[in-house]
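Design job #97: recover the sequence.
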């Protein structure tokens, strides 16, 4: 009788719990390791693991219907864009509904994850010093917890207060920003949220919003529905036609970003990760927030911008994104230099079949349905119901996917793992069926005694 495969999952955020459920559905032995004391990862406000980036006013910017797991819809009475506490409650309910808690070891850090001596499986060293061995490892530690500061660093010295948006809680925590002159650096969703919150009358004295490059800022609603639920254009239209129509709608319904004092986007609407904000253009148009170009120098409290203008500020909030990192892996084993880690289907490393990544993507849309589909494929791969393509084919397809992504999106640290959820989910479904056929053929060949030597598997 074949021994049950043991699988470790690192992280019990949205991706980790999806992986744990899928693996249990395949009747595998699963241990999930989580540094915090509850599930939910980034959505747990002030998570005990010290890595949550949730600020007090945080709401999702992907609508409820596009964010929810297919196996577990969000409550019907949730609003279109729920607040972080409702999302955390939803993930806890998901774990409770599927009996996941008893498979999660809370307040447990994985210090090291190393390949076993025989080359198959992994040896995990925990924070307690305990060592455990597993046949396969699923990495779901997230990629929005290790703050990235401006690179290269901004010249000069600043005599005020500086913080990363990762540590921002509200106008009073961790820094007292009320009544102060504050500069926000960045053009992503966090930058917009923080600028809007501080820009409300009676909060900060002045708020400046600086960016090196422009962005298309999309509203949360269009035509009376959440913007990500609008399917007005046929999916059969060529991408260039959809892009042209979308940009025409934007200019008609919203205007031009540069009319609000923001840098003019140098890319097309679909060539960068979207920035979603219902309020920032109003704050800019009301003078509560002032758009500025790139920050080029700090001199005491004097801040110099690329257009030659100078402003005096008391604090700087850097909403400059995150580094992709795996502190439990030795760098020579695996690392994501410049946030770039090519993976087959954003799941499988090229040289191993016992290591999997869930949610290591920057989707145009929410990561949760994507992670759920990835997790089911990983579970089938570990159980043997899915077989990967050959190593040369995986390498060729990964390279092709990587080149297509680089061609489509603006070159930046933010777009090293960008993908469109709908396109990706279709590709994943096709590959899942193809892999199941390969697995059935392999089993048939094995029954006939004609199977060839397999690649290393979990």
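Job complete. Output follows.
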């Amino acid at each position: 009788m074949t021994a049950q495969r043991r699988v470790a999952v690192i992280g019990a955020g949205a991706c980790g719990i999806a992986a744990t459920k899928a693996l249990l559905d395949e009747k595998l032995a699963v241990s999930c390791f989580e540094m915090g004391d509850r599930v939910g990862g980034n959505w747990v406000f002030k998570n005990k693991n010290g890595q949550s980036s949730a600020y007090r006013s945080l709401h999702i910017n992907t609508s409820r219907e596009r964010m929810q797991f297919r196996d577990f819809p969000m409550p019907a009475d949730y609003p279109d864009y729920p607040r972080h506490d409702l999302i955390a409650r939803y993930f806890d309910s998901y774990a409770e509904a599927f009996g996941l808690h008893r498979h999660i070891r809370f307040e447990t850090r994985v210090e090291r994850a190393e390949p076993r001596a025989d080359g198959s499986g992994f040896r995990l060293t925990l924070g307690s010093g305990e060592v455990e061995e597993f046949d396969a490892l699923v990495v779901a530690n997230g990629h929005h917890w290790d703050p990235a500061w401006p690179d290269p660093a901004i010249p000069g010295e600043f005599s005020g207060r500086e913080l990363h948006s990762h540590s921002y809680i509200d106008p009073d925590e961790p820094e007292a920003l009320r009544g102060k002159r504050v500069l926000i650096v960045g053009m992503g969703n966090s930058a917009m949220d923080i600028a809007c919150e501080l820009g409300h009358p009676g909060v900060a004295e002045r708020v400046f919003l600086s960016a090196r490059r422009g962005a298309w800022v999309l509203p949360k609603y269009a035509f009376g529905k959440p913007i990500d639920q609008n399917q007005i254009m046929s999916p059969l239209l060529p991408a260039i036609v959809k892009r042209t129509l979308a940009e025409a709608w934007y200019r008609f319904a919203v205007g031009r970003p540069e009319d609000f004092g923001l840098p003019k986007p140098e890319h097309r609407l679909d060539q960068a990760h979207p920035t979603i904000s219902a309020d920032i253009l109003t704050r800019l148009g009301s003078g509560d927030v002032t758009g500025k170009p790139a920050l080029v120098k700090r001199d005491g409290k004097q801040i110099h911008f690329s257009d030659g203008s100078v402003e005096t500020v008391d604090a700087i909030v850097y909403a400059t994104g995150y580094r992709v990192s795996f502190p439990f892996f030795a760098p020579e084993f695996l690392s994501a230099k410049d946030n770039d880690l090519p993976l087959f289907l954003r799941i499988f490393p090229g040289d191993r079949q016992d290591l999997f990544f869930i949610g290591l993507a920057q989707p145009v849309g929410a990561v949760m349905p994507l992670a759920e589909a990835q997790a089911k494929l990983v579970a089938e791969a570990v159980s043997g119901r899915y077989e990967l393509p050959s190593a040369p084919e995986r390498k060729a397809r990964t390279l092709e996917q990587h080149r297509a992504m680089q061609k489509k999106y603006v070159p930046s640290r933010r777009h090293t793992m960008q993908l469109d959820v709908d396109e990706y989910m279709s590709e994943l479904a096709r590959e899942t069926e193809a892999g199941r056929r390969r697995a059935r053929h392999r089993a048939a060949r094995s029954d006939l005694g004609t199977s060839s030597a397999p690649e290393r598997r979990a």
